[in-house]
Each structure stands twice: as C-alpha cells, then as structure tokens.
Amino acid sequence: MTHSPIMPELLDRALFEPRLNETFLIESTTVELKLVECRRLKSVEGEPREPFSLVFRGPLDPFLQQRTYPIRNEHTGTLEIFLVPVGRDTAGFLYEAVFN
Q1: Which domains does the chain carry?
Q2: Which of 4, 10, 33, 50 could be joined to 56 by an S-S link, Cβ 3.0–4.6 Å?
C-alpha cells in the first residue's frame, strides 16, 4: 500500500491512537518498533496542535541512537520521526517521540 507523505503539521494524536500495538519498520532495515504508548501532553493556548508523545519499543539489538528515522506502517506510510532512547526493559529499548 503506497501513501503520500504526511506533512509534519498534520501529525496528530488521532493519527497514532488507532495504531497502538502496531508495528512500524525503520526503512532500509529489518528493525521493527512497536507503538506502545500515545499520550496527550499539557497544551498551551494558541498552539497549532495539541502536544502529544509516542513511545515505541524496539529490540535489545540493535540499540538506536537519538536521531530522525524514516519509519513505515501500512496505515501511515513513511514518517520521519525524531526518536530519543528513554529506557530499557526485558523486552527491549524504549524510544520516545514528542510532538509540540
């Protein structure tokens, strides 16, 4: 399924909430990330969109450095998302993306 790229300003929580527990693939790799959290953040009046954060769980190997990654899901197409490592559990590393 091919999608046109989604403009960054159109990325909102409503796009990702239905994708909870779905897999996203980092393009040009075999690394899969699972969307495990989609959370509303405190907003300030006048912001163009409601702030939110996403947490993905990735494998224990490889560890992903903090940077922008092209990730693909069959419903969203390819998105450029800045991921920050925020933790680790027995299942893998956790990465957060914050949208203001």
Answers
A1: 8-99 (2.40.30)
A2: 33
User: What are the DSSP calls for 6-74, one per residue?
Assistant: PPGGG--HHHHGGGTT-EEEETTS--EEEEEEEEE----TT-SS--EEEEEEE-SSSPPPSEEEEEEET
CB 62 within 8 A of CB 33: no
First to last CA, the chain: 29
Percent of the chain with pLDDT over 90: 67
How big is the chain, counted in residues? 100
